[in-house]
Please model this.
Amino acid sequence: MTAEAATQDLLPADLTMGTVMLKVGDMKVMTDYYQRALGLDVVAEQDGGLYLGRLRKPLVHLAPAPGLNLPGRGEAGLFHTALLFENQTDLAATIATAAQFEPRSFTGSADHLVSEAFYFTDPEGNGVELYWDRPRSNWSWNGTDVVMDSLALPPQRYLEQHLTEESLEGQRGAVAGVGHVHLQVGDVQSARDFYVGILGFEKTAGWHGQALFVSAGGYHHHMAMNVWNSRGAGPRKDTLGLGEVLIEVPSGDDVGALADRLKVASVPAHHTGAELRFEDPWRNNIRVAVR
Model:
């Protein structure tokens, strides 16, 4: 295959992650968490649920799903939705409100070299990462793999260094986006075959055969998949938790090119022209749409 052909089989470099849809059992409790703990506002009320975000940009879609059960710990599905902040003071403000709202929801923090990350769990067990990226010029690469680590990042010291009254008061006016989405899957090789081999992401890192990180355009990762809780998991049942991952691309040509790759790989998909819906090997719903 020529370099040009290989490039045409990749997802566009300026791809972005869009709204993550969650199937929710208790809308009141979950809406309260995303508004009060994470400082998100209701952007729209449609599609039978609520879209919450910042500055009219939806980040999370809470869709009522009464009657569904919570997923088991070892099932495939969502590991976390990662919300990306523009600077450390904006990140610190949301860490502070999340920790104050429910201290037990905090599950850890780490300096990943490319980013600083803090981890929480929402009331229905969905993982949430709050993070800030170091400038790309500070990232190191080992060939095609970005150098990441998990170094200590004490949350109290972080808040002492970066939290300000201004950032707390202006929290809802601070920009945030979905930086990446991390999934639980049954095995890493199948994830690589699908997300890299078929969809056209590029592998940016691995972790002892237990995790895979992929991106477009040289980002550290737009998506990740791990087997830490879910090794050997088969296709998902219909449960609470992840409903859909949205990937946004610049043009209809990008959607069409991916539709062609899915067809060649015999992956069933619904293609409307402006968007494409399909499932990964674990029945995680993916939607690719023009931004």
Summary: DSSP finds seven helices and 18 strands in the chain.
